[in-house]
Design brief:
single chain; alpha+beta; holo-[acyl-carrier-protein] synthase; AASDHPPT_N; 4-PPantetheinyl_Trfase_dom_sf
């Protein structure tokens, strides 16, 4: 089972914010520890993103592994890759079930994969601007240690500011998705991975771009990268071989039950058609036995 979910939090304005009945109900759908981590954020927008992320993860585990919603246990690798820690057998058609989440700007996204290790990253507009203006020179100074000269040259040659910013966000999103799929996150030297991004063929829609990665100067054709625009945001899905997983504690790696592939089998897997993102509502992410309770709260909120 392959899931691609995106939640747009920009239109979600719960009455009373985190103190309101709706937000408090949603917190009750996750574990106490998860709820506490959500509330530690200073700004309400960050609390919204964090809560939506945890709801996405629980619903994904429920659907893909047939776990009870309230029983789902999420842990993270040393590099902060989330995974389902429940000791449950993986279905035969999803031996390496894993997922990844990302949130920035308006969107919170989740991607899961039954076989490949998967990473996802969403890049919002404005994150690379200073005083509302995109400056390639400023970006070069800030991200000099993360991009190669060729990558900056490919961005610079686009000329127009808006095109340069889009290209920068696509490149950054690829790097983030790659390291998140591997599991080492910020522990990976981003200059080691160089991305070559090009327009996708029409049959790949809604993905408009694809990318190839070179690691330490060597092309890695056993990885695939698909990029999709969501409004003004860019989302990248990275998919690669389980053998590339970096997991200091070994707990996530032990959930992967098929790690050996013939070259032919892997080519078939990595180039299989991929679905784009479906926009989901909060209600879609809740346990079915609590939907009536949620509907009543949303309809009659004491802060309304």
């Amino acid at each position: 089972m392959t899931l691609r979910w995106a939640f747009n939090r920009s239109s979600w304005r719960p009455e009373g914010e985190e103190k309101g009945a709706e937000f408090q109900f949603l917190l009750s759908c996750i574990s106490k520890e998860e709820a506490e981590s959500v509330l530690r954020f200073k700004f309400f927008a960050d609390k919204q993103r964090a809560l939506a992320s945890r709801l996405l993860q629980r619903k994904c585990a429920e659907e893909c592994l047939r776990l009870r919603y309230e029983d789902v246990r999420i842990k993270r690798t040393k590099g902060r890759k989330p995974f389902v820690a429940n000791p449950v057998d993986r279905p035969a058609d999803r031996p390496n079930f894993n997922f990844n989440v990302s949130h920035e700007g308006d969107y919170v996204v989740l991607a899961s994969d039954p076989v490949c290790v998967v990473g996802v990253d969403v890049a919002a507009p404005g994150q690379s601007r200073k005083n509302g203006v995109f400056s390639l020179e400023q970006v070069f100074r800030n991200f000099k240690s993360s991009f190669t000269a060729a990558e900056f040259s490919n961005i610079k040659c686009l000329g127009e500011e808006g095109a340069q910013e889009d290209a920068f966000r696509r490149s950054w999103s690829c790097k983030e998705a790659f390291t998140k799929a591997r599991g080492d996150g910020i522990g990976f030297d981003l200059q080691r991975c160089e991305f070559f991004i090009q327009d996708a063929s029409p049959e790949r829609l809604p993905f408009t771009h694809v990318a190839e990665v070179h690691v330490d100067g060597k092309a890695r054709h056993d990885w695939s990268f698909s990029l999709q625009p969501l409004g003004t945001h860019w989302v990248t899905i990275a998919r690669g071989p389980p053998s590339d997983v970096v997991d200091a504690f070994g707990e996530f790696r032990r959930t992967l039950t098929r790690t050996e592939f013939s070259a032919q089998d892997w080519r078939r897997e990595i180039h299989s058609p991929q679905p784009g993102f479906d926009i989901v509502a909060l209600r879609d992410l809740l346990p079915s036995d609590r939907l009536d309770e949620y509907d009543q709260i949303v309809e009659v909120d004491p802060f309304a």
